[in-house]
Design a protein that fits this description.
It is built from 7 helices and no strands. By secondary structure, the chain is mainly α.
Length: 148
């Protein structure tokens, strides 16, 4: 589990490690097939992703996990966005797509733009270029504030 206290950089590192582990787990699940998982494995996988893991049938667990894997790997939705969308889905019976839409609508515009660009740029080179451009924009804003 991720600790609830620590420096910002430590907590950020822990979160990034968790997201990488989830992505690797998604790839293993896709290779093995959701239908091959036991109920206990399904519940553990769902709970690890912040999804409802109690009180449902095995078929519903399979549907929910397959929906996650399809979005994560098939549609290349960033893990961070999927995790945030679970907060909207766990309290309602919304579809995964509706939960993602609700999450995007609730996000500030800059965060939404960043999430959309991540989803549209699976290539690491493009992602690095986007980060560099964002850092340059922030540096320009800092320089402008210093001049004022």
């Amino acid at each position: 589990d991720i600790p609830t206290f620590g420096s910002d950089s430590f907590l950020k590192f822990q979160l990034l490690q968790r997201m990488r582990a989830i992505k690797a787990d998604d790839e293993m699940i896709q290779a093995e097939g959701v239908a091959e998982l036991t109920t206990a494995e399904l519940r553990e996988a769902l709970a690890y992703r912040g999804m409802r893991a109690v009180g449902l049938s095995k078929e519903r667990y399979q549907q929910d996990l397959q929906g996650w894997v399809d979005l994560s790997l098939g549609k290349n939705v960033p893990t961070t966005l999927l995790l945030m969308s679970r907060a909207f889905k766990i309290t309602q019976s919304a579809s995964a797509e509706d939960a993602l839409k609700s999450t995007l609508q609730a996000m500030p515009k800059q965060a939404r733009d960043s999430a959309e660009s991540l989803a549209a740029e699976p290539d690491k080179v493009l992602e690095t270029q986007r980060k560099l451009a964002e850092l340059q924009r922030e540096q320009d804003l800092i320089e402008e504030e210093k001049r004022e």
